[in-house]
Amino acid sequence: MRSPLLLLLAGGVAAGSVIFSPDDAGHPSQGATASAGAGAASGAAPEAYTQWCASCHGPNGRDFVARTWKLGSTSEDVARVIREGYPLLGMPGYGEVLQDEDIVALTDYVLEQASTERGFRAEAPTTTATDDLTVRANVVMEGLETPWGMDFVDDTTLLVTEREGRIWLWEAGKVKPVAGGPTDIHVRGQGGLLDVMHWVDPQDGQAWVYLTYSKNEPGGDKGSATALVRGRWMPDGPALGPLENLFVAEPYESTHHHYGSRVAVGGDGKLYLTCGERGMRDVHPQTLTTSPGKVHRFNPDGSVPQDNPFVGEPGSVPSIWSWGHRNPQGMTVHPETGAVWTHEHGPKGGDEINLPERGKNYGWPVITFGKNYTGTIITRDTAMAGMEQPLYYWLPSIGACGLEIVHGGDWPDGWQGDLLVGSLSFEYLERLHLENGRVVQRDRLLEGIGRVRDIARNSRGDLFVAVEGTGKVYHLVPVTQD
Ligand code: HEC
After folding, report:
1. Mutate to test the pocket of ligand 1, among 20, 83, 91 (most ligand atoms within 8 A of CB)
2. Model confidence over 287-303: pLDDT tens digits?
3. Strand 400-405 vs strand 419-423: parallel, antiparallel, or unpaired?
4. How many A from CA of 273 to the centre of ligand 1?
5. Residue 65: per-residue pLDDT
6. Reduced to 3 states, what is the DSSP secondary structure of residue 269?
7. Alpha-carbon distance 211 to 194, whole Å?
8. Inside any domain, residue 379
9. Is the Cβ–Cβ distance between 116 and 110 less than 8 Å?
10. Looking at the domain assignment, is residue 273 inside a domain?
11. According to the model, what pLDDT value does residue 315 have?
12. Are 394 and 410 in contact (CB under 8 A)?
């Protein structure tokens, strides 16, 4: 299972040695034997450690002292990680370059270092237990300001935006800045650099990065609008090629909130973009003549598909797919059906989940389960002819942001197909268990973790969660119960 990347990393460790032969691996030293099990964590490292591990994990196993294990703490777990590696986090596998006895010695040494009492105390890992599973959250990125959007480039490479305008590439555990993002970002209120999507054109194999953001009104006025751009993906930079402006959800407004916005390519190969109503509920959601408060649908090059519902209707914005939305900040595409799922912030109560369908009106603010934040009534109507009911609504609001579907990986059967939704207001991650397309159970995961902004899944089912405020990205790992 060794990929060229791993070989490269392993090669880099043995500084100067061009070709590797297993004999170079060295043998457990006296020191290692002495330290194993003797509680003397300061014992000398096995030679193999110094040769193969120290460059990343520090001299004398420093990185393992008082460690909070990410991948398991038994000697089987540690030996497995050393043998097979863990590409997602940048740990190379050594099964083909080290002898079994070296792996045993390294395992003993690493465990020994981890249990040392040299003035450090391991922090308890963040875990969360539900009826059927314990989930651990490993920190994989920290020091961000307001992470907003995430999307995987491949299984070990993640793009992350910060609302302040920065783009980062996380690659097998290492973080690099990505150049070439937009420069006319309105970083104010809820505005800023928002979502990111990596997409490969199946026609010609060209990789693109799409970004959404709140764009300053050209000419320096105070307005802003949700905008969609894309640039060619240049992984070597890493950078984006010249940006193409695909869409601006006009009109520009002087408010600084309810931009949406999420971008995704549906199972039909079309690009969907959610736009919030800019806090102007009586102006935008119930008209087809403006763009805010809608889900839009494009061809991936930004042109409008001719089978969109309002194409050719005089005065209508032709990219509108569905309308009557408030502030949709979650969208994902079902990995099996290809259907587009969204959720949107309601007011006080009335966050809702929808599967936006062609031409349909989702009712805001004519029908809603929510109230004004002050508690006053918006409307008593929760249903009306010609307006859609949500698949699910939250009362009270959780401040929904980010949406993913559990799929694949080591997740148990009972979790497959469930929804994960971030809660900004209550600072946890919500799991919604579905049966026959209906929400039948809710679990609060990672309570108190902070304002959950986004969730991303790679094709292997790994789930990452971005939290603003603390500025961290977590990798969720199902823990098999012993
Ligand atoms: C190229 C850098 C690199 C090299 C070389 C490397 N590792 Fe790692 N290793 C990592 C990264 C990154 C992780 C992910 C965990 C983390 O964030 O610390 C990791 C994780 C581990 C873990 C799991 C830790 C946990 O918390 O569960 C063990 C055990 C480990 N390495 C042992 C070794 C040993 C032993 C060697 C030498 C044979 C080695 N590593 C060489 C980068 C490296």
Report:
1. 91
2. 999 999 999 999 999 99
3. antiparallel
4. 39
5. 87
6. coil
7. 7
8. yes
9. no
10. yes
11. 96
12. no
User: CB neighbours of 376 closer than 8 A, spacing ≥ 6?
Assistant: none
Indicate the helix (H) or strand (E) that contains 443.
Answer: strand 438-445
Tell me the mean pLDDT in the region 368-374. Answer: 76
pLDDT per residue as tens digits for the range 187-196: 999 999 999 9
Say yes or no: CB of residue 94 within 6 Å of ligand 1: yes
- Residues 114 and 66: beta-carbon distance below 8 Å: yes
User: Is the pLDDT reported for residue 21 higher than 50?
Assistant: no
- Cα torsion angle, 240, 246, 249, 251, sign: positive
Q: Are residues 15 and 76 in the same domain?
A: yes
pLDDT of amino acid 14: 30
Q: Does 69 sit in the ligand 1 pocket, CB within 6 Å?
A: yes
pTM: 0.86
Same domain, 279 and 382: yes
User: What do you get for the CA distance between the two ends of the chain, in Å?
Assistant: 27
Mark whether 258 is an active-site residue.
Answer: yes
Which residues, other chains included, contact 6 with Cβ-Cβ below 8 Å and sequence gap of 6+? 85, 87, 92, 93
Specify burial of residue 183 (Cβ count, 10 A radius: 0-12, 13-18, 19+): exposed
The CATH number for 87's domain is 1.10.760.10
**Probe target for ligand 1 pocket from 7, 56, 98, 472, with the most ligand atoms within 8 Å of CB:** 56
Q: Is the pLDDT of residue 402 over 80?
A: yes
| Same domain membership, residue 209 and residue 314 | yes
* Contacts of 42 by beta carbon, 8 Å cutoff, 6+ apart: 35, 60, 116, 118
Name the amino acid, one letter, at 42. S
Scanning the structure block, which residue is given the tokens 């902004």?
453
Q: How many domains does the chain have?
A: 2
Each residue's pLDDT tens digit, 225-259:
999 999 999 999 999 999 999 999 999 999 999 99
Q: What's the DSSP call for residue 185?
A: B
Choose the final residue of a domain: 403, 426, 454.
403
Q: Partners of 449 in the beta sheet?
A: none
Rg (the chain; Cα; Å) = 25
Domain shared by 103 and 186, yes or no: no
Q: Which of 33, 111, 41 is nearest to 77 (CA)?
A: 111
Which range of residues forms the domain containing residue 366? Answer: 152-403
